[in-house]
Amino acid sequence: MDYEKINSVLNNDGVIAFVTDTVWGLGCLPNREKAVKKIYEIKHREAKKPLILMSYDTYPMFDYLMQPIEKEAQKLIKKYFPGALTLILPKSENTPDYITSELPTVGIRVPDNKTFADICKNIDGGVLATTSANLSGEPPALTHEEAVKYIGDKVDIVIEDMGTKAGGRASTVAGFKDGNTIVYRQGDIII
Asked: What is the phi/psi pair of residue 104, to 5°?
């Protein structure tokens, strides 16, 4: 994989497409507002739908989260990361409003996919602002070929999956209210 090229694209407001353990994703650096806007344009995504942060581990995302992280969230992170779980947590002032659609929370996820992990380990900051690789309302891409077909001409790079495949089901999305876990979208992981 050409990490120098990937970094160059990302640092110049570029958008990349990549495989995860669930579906293919689109991503950019969280501090690149122009690139985030590009993702919304590519997908024809409503501005009120936030992006989520993804990385190869939880630690690179800590700067974007209000500390301390809720005990219940810490348990789920230990049990299900890496995996098909997105947690909605209170954000810190380091998380730009343009990623979260002005919401006080941000979604975080650590996909269980070696190719994705390798990308994040080799990019500046180790974190991507992401969403699924598809047009809004359409099914997400599940293969490199589908990613190229759906959004290949709209992104800067569609990164090869290096033999790692997307599983096909979206992640479970969960948050917390008054110490209780709330499931917003049921995916593969049953909490």
From this structure: -80, 5
Give me the sign of the Cα torsion angle 129, 100, 166, 82.
Answer: positive
Q: Is-above-0.90 flag for pTM?
A: yes
pLDDT tens for each residue of 8-22: 999 999 999 999 999
Q: What is the sign, positive or negative, of the torsion defined by CA atoms of 134, 152, 142, 97?
A: negative
* CATH class of the 3-185 domain in this structure: alpha beta
Give CA separation, 51 vs 43, 48, 78, 107, 108, in Å: 12, 10, 23, 7, 9
Domain positions in the chain are 3-185
Print burial letters for 48-63: b (CB count within 10 Å at least 16), e (below 16): eebbbbbbbebebbee
